[in-house]
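retry 2 of 3: previous attempt timed out while embedding iron/sulfur cluster. Reduced batch size to 1 and resubmitted. Inputs unchanged:
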Amino acid sequence: MKVKIDADLCTGCALCTDSLPEIFVMADDVAEVATPNVPANQEAAVQEAADDCPAEAIIIE
Ligand code: SF4
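retry 2 succeeded.
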């Protein structure tokens, strides 16, 4: 699984960075992906973060 963030959609709410700091980090006012190649044991949590993102800015590939 790969993950990325659409910086044009992200509102910087920090929900994903609070819940998965090893995957998502804040950069200026938006989140960015620190670990684009998601480890298998984090895939469910990343999917949940994508589902929970209020801006639907987390894109799983
Ligand atoms: S949860 Fe979504 S809107 Fe909030 S910081 Fe993460 S990517 Fe951005």
